[in-house]
Amino acid sequence: MADNPVITPAQSFENYYEHSFTYLHNIPMDKRRVGFQYQHPDIRNYLIYNSISNYNLYVNFPVSKKFNLEIRLPFTQFSFKESYGSYIQSNSTTGYGNISFLLQMKPESMNSNIDHFAFGLTFPVFTADFYTFNFRDYIPKNNYCVFGYYSYMERLDRNYIIAVETGPRLWIPTSDAPNPDAEVFLDYGTSAGILFDNFLFNVELIGVFNLSAANDYELLRRNNIISAGLEYRISSFNVGLNYGYMLKSSINKYTKGLFLAKVEIII
Fold first, then answer.
1. Per-residue pLDDT for 260 more than 80?
2. Domain with 257 in it: what CATH number?
3. CB 174 within 8 A of CB 185
């Protein structure tokens, strides 16, 4: 009988970074990554939005030996149907989110400890007139967004990984924006994962804090999500399911959390 194959730490870590995070940014690498995400808010019953669906198409690819470029295009739709006696009101609409470009500096090595920096720009092309419960991809109309982050990942054991990420986010209003003031945010997140065979179980805590808002009712002062998900890798494909629970925030009274499904290919 043949001996069972042994997974070395290096092989385990390589398998890990070819998996994908749900909310944290993925590690830039020499391969191309193309993905699609479907996100559905778990809306509380009394909210007028009966159905909201967010979609996200993204591609990440190397542009040089030191940098990767990631492009994201979100798309969303919502519908509702409310009855008032014999009168029934219904409506549905669709819209694009804000297209974003992210330039990532590749890690110097893919050893047990990995860190990298990134800088991004989001353009104000949001066409929807409703709230999507996705704070990062659907910023208010007539606002540019400049952001950056630092990410650090460490392997604790052969198949156990932790990661942290943080960075600033700045909303810059255009001349047509109803609110002429810029807004400054702090993004932060942490992740812990375990890899077994081709499966990745991952827990993430991510949040954003508005450093400019005077109180909880001015825009969104804080938004925190804790999520758990399972991803399966087969050949060059990653397929995953995730649920993120919305912790106490100014929008927690509207939605309990977010369901998410994703598929991506690494080539």
1. yes
2. 2.40.160.40
3. no
